[in-house]
Every structure is written in structure tokens, then in C-alpha cells.
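quick one, two chains, predict together pls
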Amino acid sequence: MMDRLQESFQRLRSIFRRSQLDHELDEELAAHLEMAIEEDLQRGIPREEARRRALIRLGGVEQVRQQHWEARALPRIETFFQDFRYAARGILKSPGFTSAAVLTLALGIAVNATLFGMVSGFLLRPPSARDPERVVVISSVNPAGGRWSDVNLVSAPNYLAWRGGNHVFESMAAADEFRSASLNWQGQTQALHSAAVTAGYFSVLGVTPQLGRDFYGEEDRTGRNHVVILSHEVWEREFGADPSIVGRVIRLDREDSTVVGVMPANFHLMGLTPQVWTPLVLSTADQSAIAHKDRSLFVIARLKRGVTLAQARAELSTLARLSQQDFPDTEKGWGAAARTLPDFLVYRFGIRTALIVAMTVVGFVLLIACANVAGLLLARASSRWKELAIRMSLGASRLRVVRQLLTEGLTVALLGGSLGLMLAYWGIQVVRANIGSNEVIRRVQLSLDWNVLVFTTIVSLFSAVLCSLAPALAASRTDINSNLKDESRAASAGRSQGRLRTVLVTAEIAAALFLLIGTGLLLRGILLVEQQDLGFQAERLLTGAVALDHARYKGSGEQSLFVQTLLPRLRQIPGADAVAIVSDLPAAFSSRIGLRIKGQPELPASQLPRALDVVATTDYFRTAGIPLLRGRKFTDRDDTSSPRVVIVNEEFVRRYLKNQEPLGKQIRLDVRGGTADWSEIVGVVANIKTFSEADHFDPQVYESFLQRPVPSFFLILRTGADPNSLTSDLRKAVAQTDRELPLAELRSMSSVIENQKGSTDFFLRMLATFGILALGLAGIGIYGLIAYSVGQRTHEIAIRMALGAAAREIRMMVLRQGLKMAGVGAAIGLVLSLPLPKLFAAIFDDLHTGNLQIYLIVPAAIFLVAMLATYIPAHRASRIDPMMALHSN
Amino acid sequence: MAESKLDLLQGTLDLMVLQTLAAMGSLHGYGIARRIEQVSGDEVLLNQGTIYASLVRLQQRGWISAEWGTSSNNRKAKFYSITKKGRKHLADDAAYWHRLAGVMGRVLGTQGEGGNS
């Protein structure tokens, strides 16, 4: 044991005494040889012969040195440092090669690190919950199917029934997440995004307020419910982070509420974190049969100890079946699903696939960058074949040489990785600045975190291996003899190297083509969407949202009255050309509604034709700039005292009325809380886009506000001036009507549309940038490899020219070589990219990639780049002076 | 079989070096190599150079020591001699080899008889 320890110590020590030990060994060996020679001389052998014999018996000075060193030191570690030093020296000696290789890799690594920063921000950061994997989100499953049909919200009666009837959950809670609360504080009224939650909500998540307490069990009952928990943001912004806020009474929704707690700043699930939480009161009305239709609760539960997700799912499907039996009218076919919280968030926000696509793209960019660097290293290694051959013949093992080449790749990759990380730091800033307008996405923290650092290191190591694989492979096949004898380095670089180069170029072209077609398809998709007419005039429109509360506006009468008082005030605003009230802004999501058409066969509820349902006041179409095509608009006489009327859009007539005469037709809307009376179609208006980022129209029905008032709606105001200049007037008009009513989301229609562009737009632009980057890299790679191979063939070309080949023939020869590779690569890339349109259509909802010109444009572009990259070396080859070239060796 | 030389088993060279030094006292590398060749009757396949790896190994374990001196023909050379620790190790190892050689002999002997019958 002691001996081993001593030995290890000695070995370590010997690393630092290397030159002294080597020197001593040299002296010893010199003495050894001298003694051996003298012995032979005495036997009468001539000196030359004696020396030869002595060397043979010793077994080669270089080998003895190597063995000696292996025996005394720590060969692996020392070799590594030695190789590293050697690589560093080599790299410093050729700054051109180095900067090309390092920059290329840095670009490849930077885009990967930047994107992984997003992956880390979006997918790897766990939601704020204790043991998030044990928290499940319970959803209703819509039998109609379609996107996100299995993450429907849950109705109050189902929540109550499932909470009472299950044996798998420790606790269950519900939240109505999309409420608005008006905060009246210091004379100002503002709308806050609020969530009404049952008393156990925070304890199911396993989080506690930073200040104060959670809701008590009985606080979600009527009478006890005037309590509120503030978000950190509101606490800071409105109350100056006052620590004595807990216990204070604030004016919320026209009532006095006691602040009982403040949530910590880092509390967030995904999406918009509410600004205040109030208790969710479930009354007897919430248990009625009709309440089954109102699926508006986000339900979470914590699994009992030892219960698996599968068991919970089984129990939920049993419970859903029970609901179906009890309420066949509303529950028929509806199921229940459960997902763990992290899984749910990722799924619901649909980011995973987009990120996977992006990661694939940057992965390809990295592969192309690696191919380039591999090409560079190969070219560099082959100009040193002779050196390597000499090293091998002197006793360096093949493994040793391969290892040395790997170290060189590693050095380049580490330099590239460090530079790439710096670029990524900047890249993430750019992403953060541009990801933009979409609030939900902007809330996600993006930074160069540990995940990214680890990822970048792994990627760098991985690319080190990838880059040095080609030259290492070539070196391991090198034949020492032929390399040493090979007088003319120009003759040919060996067949296997030639093949490697061809493979590299072909692969690069294939990858670049695949990428460009992919990003081209995506870009075309968004351009198609963006160039499409919205169907109305979004410019010079000011919008604001109002939600009438139940406290003051109990029924439709009060709601109508408010609107009738407000509209004249709005019209008086100087600069307001037209004003209207509408339940949903155009091209910005509306709810869908089932309907029946008189004269058409009765269908079961799940198969009813569906249309977007919008409630609007008389001037809406004029204000928004939606042309009336037939019939009439709403008038002030279309109120509750007259027969119900509706206006439909062209798409409705086309799809549901089969282009028959629409005017006078009767339809019946399946509105929430019952079925309305028959309504007559009195007008047809032009289509507007369902959503600004969608590329199609949906059938749409407009109802008159006076006939069906709604409590929450938007004000829209058309002006000839800058819409933002009218915001204070608009505020004033609303405040005059009701001092305690907040006006929310006050902004121009253009910025609403801009906001909706959100992430996809930016995302796809980013992908396109990567595609172009890939093409550039591939072009440089092709140029480098062809130029190099022409350089290698200078000798051969010179001989051909000396034998009478014309410059044109030489040019053609080189061009043909390049174009053959481009052709094969392009063919492979084309085949790979054929399934892309289908794939994208499946991944990105509503993204239509249009016609397939891209399949012609991209290969043409690739050929152009390949042609250019080949032409320059070809031209240079044709101008070789044969006499110079043949003599220069 | 008789014509080809014996390949050295791992560790046997170290033992030979130790034994040589134990028998001959202080000796330089060339001397050790020659001595082993002579004693083994040129039966051992020895690149003389491998002695030096063995020497540095033994030295690092503290079984031999080295110092510079002058050879018989007046050349500067490194002289090695066995240490006390080395002698002890040699005794252990030699005993082990004797036992192993005995066992091998017996095993191969019986095998041979079995093969003939």
C-alpha cells in the first residue's frame, strides 16, 4: 500500500521533472550504446556495423524513451496536456485556419445555446408548486374532438361532484381564472386581472403567501368572501410594498375587501399570473342542470400518497360516466382527463413542438458548421500527412496520432464554444427584446442559466468529436510507407480522403437544402397570413374593454341602460367619427355558438352548425369598416320590444345556406343559459378574419346589443387622428358614466393585432435567419473543400495542361466535380424534405404552406451557391501555369 | 519451439533485474542487460531498452536506488543497487515464482500423461 502511494507520488513528481529525467535517460542510453559498441569493437567488428548492432539490440532510442516515460509518469494525463500544448501551438501558427474554424463553430454553437435558453426558460423551469409532479390538472374532454378538446375547463357541478366522489385525491380546488376586478384606490379606478379560487387552491399547489395568510376554509361562502390576496406586482405598484397592508380594507368591485395576504414575486404558473385572488363562491345556482353547460373552472388536485396518475385517470373516467348518466342532456360523451401540472402547462401552451422544430433547425446549423470545420481540419491534417507518418515510423502509436487530432478538434471546439457562449449571451438579449408583444410569452424569464451552460459544454464536446472524426479516420487509415515515399504531395491525397470530402460536401448540401425548404415553407406560411386582408380597417381605431359588475348591473336592463348612456358621451368626444360597442374585437377571438336553421333537419347538439357569435351596437359595421353587402344594418329599433334579428357574414351564407337567399331566413342560436327565440336574418356583411394570425374565415352571426345585452364588451372609436391621442377623453367619458368602473386594455386596434402576432411570427423569422445562416455556412464549406481539393490536384492539372488540355476543359472538370456533389446532395435533401408540408400542417395549427414553388426555388438557390463556390477554384485551376507548378515541387 | 526465444511475462523482467542486482551488487543498465542475457543463455527475448522502463519502475517503488558513477572504461554511467525493501520484495516474489513453477510443472506433467493414455 505504502509502495503504491509512493509510486503514485513519484509518478506525479516526474511530470514536473520531465526535461531533467529525459536528459538523464539520454545520457544513460548514450553510455549504454558506447559500452555495447566497445564490446563489439573488441571482437573485431567494424565500428559502423557495431553501432548498427547496438541500436538493434537496444530496440530504438525513441521507443525506449517512450516506454521509460510511460513507466515513470502518468502517460494519459501528460499526453493530453502535451497534445493540447501541441494543438494550441499549431492553432496559433495558422491564425487564418483557426479564426475560420472557431468562428464557424461559434456561430453554430451560439444559435444552439440561444435556442436552448428558450427551451430552458419555457420548458425546464418548474411551475411554482410543491412537488409539482403530484399536482394534477383535471380537464373535461369534449367529444367533438379537435385541438385542445381534452383540456376543456370543468363545470361547477362536475367539480363539486368529482371532489366529493373521488378516493384518489388528497384535496381538490378550482379557479375561475379569467375575471376582472375593479380596484378603486386613491380616486383612480382600474381593472385588474383577477382569479376567483376556492379556499383550498393554494394549499393544493403547496404554496403560501409571502405576507399574511391563505384563505380560510369558510371564506369561499357568501358573506365571508370579502377578502383578497394580492399579487406581489400589485402590492408593489399600487401599495408601495407596504408591509402593513395585511388587514387593511381596500375598495374592490365596489365593495370593501380585507387584504389577507400577498403572494411571493416568483409565484407563477404559466400564462398570465392573476393580479389579485378572491374567493370563489359556488352557490346553489352553480349546481343546477343548466350550470353543467358552463365549463369555466380550472380544476387542480393533489394525488393521495401512493396513488398513481393512471389510478387517478381511471377514477376520473368512472366519475365522468356517472355525470353522463345523471345529466345525459349536457354531459353526453363528455369525459375527464388528468395531467400532471408541468405536463399540462407545456401541453396547453403548445410550445413544445415549436421549440422542437427550432431545436432541429439549429441542430442542422451546427451539423453544417461541424462539417465545415471537419473539412478544414481534414485539409490541415492532410498537409501534414508526412509529418504524421514520420511520427508513426518513429514509434508513435496510431492511437496516439488519432488522439492528437482529436485534441486539436477539442481545442477548436472549446474556443468556439466560449465565443459561442458570448454570442449566445447577446443572442438571448436580442430574443428577449424581440419576442415581444405577446404578454404571456414575455413573462417567461430568459437568461443564460446553468442549463444553458451545461448544454453548451456538451454541445462543444460533441462538435469536437464530430469535427475531428473525419481527419482522425483518415489518419488511422494512413499507410506510413506510401506517405513517406510519396514524393509529390500533389499527386493525390489518397482515395479515402477524397471520398470523405465528397461525403462532407454532399451532406452539407443535403442539410442546407432541407433546412431552407423547411424554413421557406414556414415563412411562406406566415407571409400568406400577413398579406391577407383582415376584412376591416384596423388603422385609426381606439379600443377599450369594460366589464360591468354584478353588484351594480344585475340584469340586462341595467346593462342596456349603461350602454345607452355611454354611447352619446362617446360620440361627443372631439375627433371621434364613429363609436360602437361590441362583445369581441374583430379578428381577435370570439366565442362559437351552435345554431339551428329553420327548414333544415334537426341535428343532435354535438353536430349543430357552429358560428362565431358577436353582439354589436348599431354603428359597429360603420365604425369597424366592415362593408354591408345585402339587407340592412341594426337600428335603434332592434331592441327587446321588436322581433329578434341577426346579421350574418358571407361565409355563413356560403357554408350553411348553400348560397340560397339569406334575407328572411330564420335561425335560432344555442346561447348559454338556454335557446333564444327564432331570429330573422336581415343583413349580410363581408367576411372578417376569425383571428389575425389565422388564414381563413369562419361563419359568423351578429346580434343586436339592445336585444341581447352582455356584461363585458369593448368600446371602439374611429377617428381621423392618432387613436392614442383620444385615450384620456375615452377614460373621462366612462368615468362620467360610472366613477367606479374601470376601463381596461385601452389601446389602438393596430396594437391589438400586433400583440396577437406574438411569438410565432418572431419564431419563424428567427428560423428563417437560421436557414440563411445555414446556406451561407454550406456555401463557405463547399468553397473551402473544392478549393482545397483543387490545390491538392495542382500537380495533376499541370500535367494535364502540359499534355494539351485547354483551360476550358480544366474548368469544366472542376465544375463537374462540384456540381455532381451538389446534385447528389440536393437530391437527398429534396427527398428528405418532401414530407415537410404535412408535418408542419400537423404541428402549426392553421399554417398553410401554400403552393410548392419553394421546391424549385431552393434547389435553384443551392445550385447557384454551389456553382459560385465551385467556379472560383475552377477558374483558378484553369489558370495554373504548368511549368511553374511542375517545377515548384 | 527451441529456436524461438521466450517472451517475458509481465513482471518477470522486474524480478530478473532485482535478482541480478542482489547477486552482482551495484551495476549499470548495460551491465544488467548483458548479465540477464548471459544467465538466461540467450533464451530470453530482450530488447535491452526495456530494462530502463523496468529500472525506473523499481526505483519509483523504492526497491532499488541509483547514483551516477564511472564505468570500468571511464564513462559516466548510472549505477543501480538493490535496497533493503527491494531484497524483501525479491524474497517474497522468488518464493511465489518457485511455488508457481512447481505447480505449473506438476499440472503440465499430469496433463501430458493424460494426453498420452
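Residues 487-493 of chain A have pLDDT under 50 and may be disordered.
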